[in-house]
Design goal:
The chain is α+β, with helices and mostly antiparallel strands. The chain is built from 3 helices and 7 strands; from the N terminus they run E-H-H-E-E-E-E-E-E-H. It has a 7-stranded antiparallel beta sheet. Strand 2 and strand 3 form a beta hairpin. Helix 2 packs across helix 3. The relative contact order is 0.22. The mean pLDDT is 94.
Length: 164
């Protein structure tokens, strides 16, 4: 797909999966890693999947070349869809949109069991449909997403240590 991020957990894939599908975790996580006005839009089973849709705001330091197109405060709408399965290998997809902007991120998530826990593999691609600066803006947004992903990983480890 595009960029691949891997995070190692000293917990089983079932433990991490159960955390990710825990409403209390979702409600606490985003404010702890810098998002505001967090709302859970949808959180329930749908056919053979579990869907979590959130809406949240973020304030970013926008580079000069993009200030004409993007405001510092943006609303993100994220939909995570996990396949419900007894298999220790868990899979899902994620879609992220920025409200009012031609920015979209699509990705695949996978929790892979290991001998000493599990590996969370996230493979994603960011598309920005703005002529001339779309590629530069996508790279900037990828850097911001990597930082947010690392903050989330640190939060997840602390959450699992307390609740798993």
């Amino acid at each position: 797909m595009g960029t691949i991020v891997k995070h190692k957990y000293p917990y089983t894939s079932d433990a991490v999966y159960n955390m990710l599908l825990n409403r209390d975790y979702v409600e606490k996580k985003y404010p702890e890693i810098g998002f505001t006005d967090v709302k859970i839009v949808y959180f329930d089973k749908k056919d053979d999947t579990f869907v979590i849709q959130t809406r949240r705001d973020i304030v970013a330091d926008i580079p000069g070349f993009a200030k004409k197109f993007i405001q510092p405060k943006s609303t993100l709408i994220q939909t995570d869809t996990w396949v419900i399965s007894d298999d220790p290998r868990k899979t899902g997809t994620v879609q992220l949109e920025t409200e009012g902007l031609p920015v979209r991120m699509n990705g695949r998530m996978q929790l892979q069991p290991t001998d000493d826990g599990c590996l969370n593999v996230f493979d994603y691609e960011i598309k920005v449909n703005i002529p001339l600066i779309g590629g530069r803006l996508a790279r900037f947004l990828e850097e911001q997403g990597m930082k947010s992903g690392e903050d989330e990983y640190v939060y997840n480890l602390a959450y699992l240590k307390e609740y798993a």
